[in-house]
Each structure stands twice: as structure tokens, then as C-alpha cells.
Amino acid sequence: MNRIALFALIIGIILAFVAYYTDFNDLPGATELRAPGFVGYILIISALGWFSLNTLHQWGRESRLYYS
Predict the structure, then answer these.
(1) Which residue pairs from 52-56 have beta carbons closer than 8 angstroms and sit at least 24 positions apart in sequence?
(2) Cα–Cα–Cα angle for 45, 7, 52, nearest 5°?
(3) Contact 50/5 with Cβ under 8 angstroms?
């Protein structure tokens, strides 16, 4: 699952960057790239959420070993 989240993070960063770059520089196709840019933001947030929850889960699992 970490590979999928990393892949989603990289694809999300690329989509968001391309949408931002075309909109900022007034390049043609900026309006068409708003939806993929939004999807990129969703992928970034989802991947970072997965990594955060996975880290919290690992920290919780480690603390149980000390109390057992």
C-alpha cells in the first residue's frame, strides 16, 4: 500500500503543478486542466493521510510492546 500511496503522491504533485503552471502563465488549456489539478490535490491529500495514519499505527504498535 505504501507504493500505491507514493505513486498517488507523485502523480498528484505532477497534476497539481501542471494545472498551476498553465494557469499562472496564462497558457492555453488552463481551464481544461482545472479538473485534473483538483484531482491532483485530492491524490496528494489522500497519500499524505495514508502516510500519517500508517505512521500513527506503527507508533501505536511499538508502544504496546513496552506495556506487555
Answers:
(1) 54/1, 54/2
(2) 40
(3) yes
For residue 4, the model assigns a pLDDT of 95
Report whether 40 contacts 14 (CB < 8 A): yes
pLDDT digits (tens, 9 = 90+) for 49-63: 999 999 999 888 866
Is there a contact between 26 and 54 (Cβ–Cβ < 8 Å)?
A: no
Q: Match 507504493 to its residue by C-alpha cell.
A: 3
Return the percentage of the chain with pLDDT > 90, whole number: 69
